[in-house]
Each structure stands twice: as structure tokens, then as C-alpha cells.
């Protein structure tokens, strides 16, 4: 078998492979992308299709799609290579097709400058074979709307219909995303419309609202938005199922909750995803009426270990401590699929910032596998939490390691 980056001549073959693997119909198996369709061309930008070819027959055996994104790590936007459409024809399964594709494309991601790779797995165990691991999880909460009357609502509400209000909502999301690890930067229109703003309120029952409040001068400013659809919740009444809600601060979140209370009693409950730094039960009058569930449907993998270590956030207190003397630690990492990552990393914190030097593999303060390393540098686990994993060995406890790897709020809402 032979790996190829697939060109336009195999576009239809890749689509047919996906149809068989994921059991969905395609109306025209021979249809090619329309070069004059702006939306189709936007979807193709930043995407690579990789496939394994049967050298005897020339058939496409299996393959995957790589999609360029940017995601948040600490105070930085870093490049993430999203993996989608991973599939193999039934007649070629259990032959190591996908393993060999990953063996080639993971170093390719590194060379292209990616810091992370992410995917939505059909099986966590399968993708762990290639270094992927679950992140901290998305907290999905359900709360009764009646009790949200305790919160003050916004000063003005507008259904999002104009381009100006759409842009205002996007600006809110940018502020919201900057403080949550793993939030995606939505640079392309299709990302925004697909996740949040598609659908008509009358045809599709897709409701989108922009919330405004008065600033210190008494002028209205956008502070939050919510996009939701009604959902039948059986005997418990109608549910407002939020596709996304974002807000610039705690006051804006409370105003959003107050606004949603106005849908009671036509709706009984609100379901929404919350970032890791929001504990809704601690805000609501009746915490018995708040239920939480954690969704672990996303996996990540470190692609460039050095870049991720250099992206770790350094707090003012850490910089102040470094004024008394540089703080240091070392990490030893092994990576079967990206040999460029295997090595010993010396981290030094000075008042100027965090420095990272990679050398050949050798014993270190912390010895870690790629899965546990990924969880540490993305804030999914603190150092103490990671200590329960078999893939972490702490030889020396250092103040810098305990300060760097504390766990951080995460937010994932984008799908691919």
C-alpha cells in the first residue's frame, strides 16, 4: 500500500469512501466541487485529504481529512490540525491502514507548524494507539427556568437578524474564547454559521438573541448572546437547548440567565454547555434543580511538545517568585509517532518569562508519555490529577511544575 495526499481527481472517491464507512447517502457520487461556489471553496481551504492506495488495484483503501484550525492554549492561539473522516473500506479493515496513515501525517502536522491535533472519536481506545487522549470534558448543565427569575435581565434584547448584530455576537465570542483553553478561533464564516448562527427562527425554530446592557455612561453595549432550539422533554415540558451561549463576564452571564427565565412556563428548562470556570449550581437559588453531565466526546494529541510548553501561562505571582531566583524543572517525553518530540525539556522561569530548551532523551524530574503530556499542557489535568495516571512518573517535585500544571478552564463547542 502507498500513502498519497489526494488531489481533486480523487475527491469523489473520498466522498464515496465516507458514504460507505459512515452510512450516509450522496445524491451524485460523481459530483465535483463547483469552483464558482464561494461557500464550497471556503470549505476546501486549509484542508488536506490523505489516503492509502492499494498498489495492486489503484483503489483508495482508506484515508482521513486534515483541517487547519487555531485553538487557545494559555494566552496564545496555536495551530490545531483537526482530523475528520477517518475511514477504511470494509474489505481493507484490520490491515493497519489507518495506523500507517497516522504514522505519516503526524510528523507532517509537526512540519506544518501544528501544536495540537484533535478529533471526535468513534472509539477512545482506538485513537489512544496513536497518542490521542480525552480532554477535561464539556460540562452540560440543565436548570429549571423558573428559578432564573432571581437574576436581573438585560437592558435590551434583539433577535440576531442583521449583519451588525452578527458581528457584535462574534466580538463577544472572541472575548469569551480568550480566557478558555481549547476554545476555537472562528476565522471562517462557515465555522460561525455552522456552530451557532445557521437556521431560520420561523422555518427551523432556531432562535438567536443578542443581549445588551448599559455601561457607566448609560450607553448600550452588547454583553452576551444565546442561540437555542426548542426540544421536547417529555413529561418535563419543553426544553430550550442552547447551541451556544457566550458572555463577556459574570454580570453578562447572570443577565443571560435572567433573560431565559422569561420563556417560562412555555419552556421549563434550559440546557447549555458551560466552560470549566463556571459553576452554575453555585449561582442558582435552588442548586437541587441544577444537573450536570460531562461529555468526553473529544480527544487531543500534542504535536509540537516544545511549542506547547512555551505556551504555558505564567501568572504575575510566578514572575514575582522568579525575581528571587530562576525556577527550573525538566520533563522527559517519548513519542512513537512524532520522533521530533522525544527528548528532555529543560524549563526555566525568569522574570522575563518561560524558556524551554530541548535536548536528547535523558532522565528528568518528570517522565511522561504523550497522552498524559497532552492533558497537562492543555490544562485538562493538574499535576496532582495526572499523578494517578500510569503514564506519569514524578522523580522530583519542583515548585515550577506545581505552578505551571494546575489545570485550566476549558471550552469546546466546535465540531468537525
From TrEMBL:
InterPro entries named among the record's database cross-references: Acetyltransferase_Eis, Acyl_CoA_acyltransferase, Eis_dom, GNAT_dom, SCP2_sterol-bd_dom_sf
A single BP term in Gene Ontology: aminoglycoside antibiotic catabolic process
Top-rank lineage group of the source organism: Bacteria
Pfam families found in the cross-reference section: Acetyltransf_9 (PF13527), SCP2_2 (PF13530)
Domain N-acetyltransferase: 9-164
Any GO molecular function: aminoglycoside N-acetyltransferase activity
Full protein name: GNAT family N-acetyltransferase
Organism: Candidatus Fimadaptatus faecigallinarum
Amino acid at each position: 500500500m502507498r500513502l498519497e495526499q489526494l488531489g481533486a481527481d480523487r475527491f469523489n472517491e473520498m466522498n464515496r469512501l465516507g458514504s460507505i464507512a459512515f452510512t450516509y447517502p450522496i445524491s451524485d457520487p460523481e459530483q465535483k466541487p463547483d469552483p464558482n461556489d464561494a461557500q464550497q471553496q471556503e470549505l476546501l481551504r486549509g484542508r488536506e485529504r490523505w489516503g492509502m492506495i492499494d498498489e495492486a488495484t489503484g483503489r483508495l483503501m482508506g484515508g482521513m481529512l486534515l483541517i487547519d484550525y487555531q485553538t487557545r492554549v494559555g494566552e496564545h492561539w496555536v495551530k490545531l490540525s483537526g482530523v475528520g473522516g477517518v475511514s477504511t473500506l470494509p474489505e481493507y479493515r484490520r490491515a493497519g491502514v489507518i495506523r500507517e496513515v497516522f504514522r505519516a501525517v503526524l510528523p507532517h502536522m509537526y512540519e506544518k507548524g501544528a501544536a495540537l491535533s484533535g478529533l471526535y472519536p468513534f472509539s477512545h481506545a482506538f485513537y489512544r494507539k496513536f497518542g490521542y487522549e480525552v480532554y477535561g470534558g464539556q460540562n452540560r448543565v440543565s436548570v429549571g427556568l423558573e428559578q432564573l427569575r432571581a437574576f436581573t435581565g438585560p437592558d435590551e434584547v434583539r433577535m440576531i437578524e442583521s449583519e451588525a448584530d452578527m458581528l457584535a455576537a462574534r466580538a463577544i465570542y472572541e472575548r469569551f474564547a480568550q480566557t478558555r483553553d481549547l476554545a476555537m478561533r472562528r476565522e471562517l464564516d462557515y465555522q460561525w454559521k455552522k456552530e451557532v448562527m445557521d437556521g431560520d427562527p420561523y422555518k427551523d425554530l432556531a432562535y438567536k438573541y443578542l443581549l445588551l446592557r448599559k455601561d457607566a455612561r448609560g450607553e448600550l453595549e452588547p454583553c452576551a448572546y444565546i442561540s437555542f432550539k426548542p426540544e421536547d422533554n417529555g413529561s418535563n415540558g419543553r426544553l430550550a437547548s442552547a447551541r451556544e451561549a457566550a458572555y463577556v463576564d459574570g454580570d453578562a452571564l447572570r443577565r443571560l440567565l435572567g433573560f431565559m427565565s422569561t420563556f417560562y412556563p412555555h419552556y421549563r428548562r434550559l440546557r447549555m454547555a458551560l466552560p470549566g470556570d463556571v459553576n452554575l449550581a453555585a449561582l442558582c437559588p435552588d442548586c437541587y434543580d441544577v444537573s450536570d453531565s460531562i461529555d468526553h466526546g473529544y480527544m487531543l494529541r500534542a504535536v509540537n511538545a516544545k511549542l506547547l510548553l512555551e505556551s504555558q501561562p505564567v501568572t504575575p505571582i510566578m514572575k514575582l517568585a522568579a525575581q528571587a531566583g530562576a525556577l527550573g524543572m525538566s520533563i522527559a517525553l517519548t513519542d512513537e509517532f512524532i520522533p521530533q518530540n522525544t527528548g528532555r525539556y529543560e524549563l526555566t522561569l525568569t522574570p522575563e518569562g518561560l524558556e524551554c530548551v530541548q535536548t536528547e532523551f535523558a532522565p528528568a524530574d518528570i517522565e511522561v508519555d504523550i497522552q498524559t503530556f497532552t492533558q497537562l499542557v492543555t490544562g485538562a489535568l493538574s499535576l496532582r490529577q495526572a499523578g494517578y495516571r500510569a503514564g506519569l512518573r514524578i522523580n522530583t517535585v519542583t515548585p515550577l511544575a506545581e505552578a505551571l500544571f494546575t489545570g485550566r478552564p476549558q471550552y469546546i463547542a466546535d465540531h468537525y
